[in-house]
Amino acid sequence: MFGLLSALIVGAIPVVLSEYGVIYVDLPAAAFSITAIAAWLHKRYFIGALIFSLAVITKIPSISLWPVFALALYLDKDARKSWQNYLYLVLPIAILGVWLGYHYSVKKWLFIRPDVMEMYQQRSLSIFTERMYYIFQLLFVRQNRWILLIGMLGSLGYLWQKKRLIPTITTPIIILLATVAFGGGFYLFSPELGSRYVMAPIVAFIILALFLLQKSFVNTTYFIGFYLLSIALFISAWHPHIKPTEVYEYAPPDNMAYQDIIKIGQQSARFLELSYSEAKIYGDWPENYQLLQPYQGYVSQALNFDSCKNFTLEMDKTQIVYVHPYSPAQQLCRRLMDLVAMKPLNRFESNGKWLELYMIDASATARLLQDQQEKNK
Fold first, then answer.
1. Is 56 within 8 Å of 95 (Cβ atoms)?
2. pLDDT attached to residue 53
């Protein structure tokens, strides 16, 4: 029953729910990792190693949980005497090593493309502490997970007062704590971070909190009441009302707000296909696949689309530019507004997510360029 309750509440947290639709590899990687840890704790070492290898191949940062498996093996006095178990422990690292060797032979880089790596500056202590606070928020506070944090801390205090805390700290509890620590701690040093990246430690935290709450509530009715309250709070964070975006947001939403981005994409694509199917359209992600790949369901046939970095003024064509704050390359589209004359064409908005379409005013732009040339003479 506890396993079922844990699965239901994990499935209700917004970041997990959003992954059903956004379809990144973080959800299967987290599922593989947690399943592998469970198999390892049940002394299914070979099965656990295979499943964890799948997690690592699915998403390389999953290897940050490898010390959890080493710790579990160390805590089992009988298991750590078998040399075979150490082979299982090394298996995910060996498979990752083979993959990285192949990857390097083809791409000539291991983890991050060199051009992308240049974007990340050396982190100061202040940035490090800010990131530590941010990870704390992601794991224990955001999307109403604070309710479980409060419940867990209350349970720890109660168990300590009743002198039941020490007997409660068994190997599974230690392993759950280690999963949270290693899974969250890894991203102190990672150049990128978002809720979906720490999904495995979030799941471990939820299981840990529920276990301690179950141990501390003498009356099962109180535990079920707290459990239902937690689920209700999680559901309330599925699709919250948000203000219009004012700064660039590159990470996909960790709640159902991703559907708002889809909605404005559908509306803009439908508008362009119906009214400006012959126009030359510029933008970046996600309009690149929305307008060029009909099987995605946004347009019935591909439109004439290109990236803003390839923009060329064409006096005899209708040219339209996408502008929104949800892609790094969109900054190039925004800069075009300073270089060429544009007039607003349409705006689409859904629950704070928005995009704007601008039409190039070719004649006004030509005059601006002519004036600029005359000034440079």
1. yes
2. 96
Residue with token string 């900054």? 331
Q: Quick one: which of 65, 63, 59 has its CA closest to 27?
A: 59
Q: Which two tokens stand for residue 357?
A: 């379409």
Query: Is it true that the peptide bond before 286 is cis, omega within 30 degrees of 0?
Result: yes
Whole-angstrom distance, CA of residue 317 vs CA of residue 280: 7
Asked whether the predicted pLDDT for residue 285 surpasses 80, the reply is yes
d(CA 171, CA 75): 7
Query: Based on the number of CB atoms within 10 Å of its own CB, is 16 exposed (0-12), middle (13-18) or buried (19 or more)?
Result: buried
Which residues is 343 bridged to in the sheet? Answer: 359
pLDDT for 52 equals 97
Strand locations in the chain (E):
280-283, 304-307, 319-323, 342-350, 353-360
Q: How far apart are CA 177 and CA 244, in angstroms?
A: 38
For Cα atoms 113, 116, 119, give the angle at the middle one, nearest 5 degrees.
Answer: 150
List for the chain the helix, strand, coil content (%; round to 5). Answer: 65, 10, 25
As given in the structure block, the two tokens for residue 172 are 């599974």
Task: Report CA dihedral (328, 63, 37, 212) to the nearest 10 degrees.
Answer: -60
Q: Taking residues 354-366, report their average pLDDT.
A: 85
Predicted local confidence at residue 192, as pLDDT: 72
d(CA 182, CA 188): 10
CB 65 within 8 A of CB 92: no
pLDDT class of 5 with cuts at 50, 70, 90: confident
Spatial neighbors of 353 by CB under 8 A, at least 6 apart, are 242, 245, 257, 260, 261, 263, 264, 326
Calculate what percentage of the chain has a pLDDT beyond 90. Answer: 66
| Residue 315 CB burial class (10 angstroms; 0-12, 13-18, ≥19) | exposed
**β pairing state of 342-350 and 353-360:** antiparallel
